[in-house]
Amino acid sequence: MTQAVIVSTARTPLAKSWKGAFNMTHGATLGGHAVQHAIQRAGIDAAEVDDVIMGCANPE
């Protein structure tokens, strides 16, 4: 890879609180949905993605 580009972004919902709708959903599952939708939003083929960088602003 000679060039890095940001083609799309997505985030997971703020729903992991004790009473949240996704409180029993593993973070990797939520992250997978975010990646899937970012790729769809960008209108590219998933095979074109070499790397995904994710971050956590509020670690538990």
Q: Notable features of this structure?
A:
elongated, 60 residues, mainly alpha
Mind explaining what this structure looks like?
This protein is mainly α and 60 residues long. It has one domain. 27% of the residues lie in helices and 0% in strands. The chain has one helix at 27-42. The longest helix has 16 residues, at 27-42. The mean pLDDT is 82.
Strand content: under 5%
The major sheet is characterized as: none
Question: Total number of β-strand segments?
Answer: 0
Rg measurement, Å: 13 Å
Helical run tally: 1
What's the order of the H and E elements?
A: H
State the domain count: 1
| Secondary-structure content class | mainly alpha
Please give the share of residues in helix: 25-40%
* Mean pLDDT metric: 82
Overall 3D geometry?
A: elongated
Low-pLDDT segments? none
First and last CA, distance: 34 Å
Provide a short characterization of the protein structure.
By secondary structure, the protein is mainly α. It has one helix at 27-42. The longest helix is centred in the middle third of the chain and has 16 residues, at 27-42.
Produce the secondary structure layout.
Layout: H1 27-42
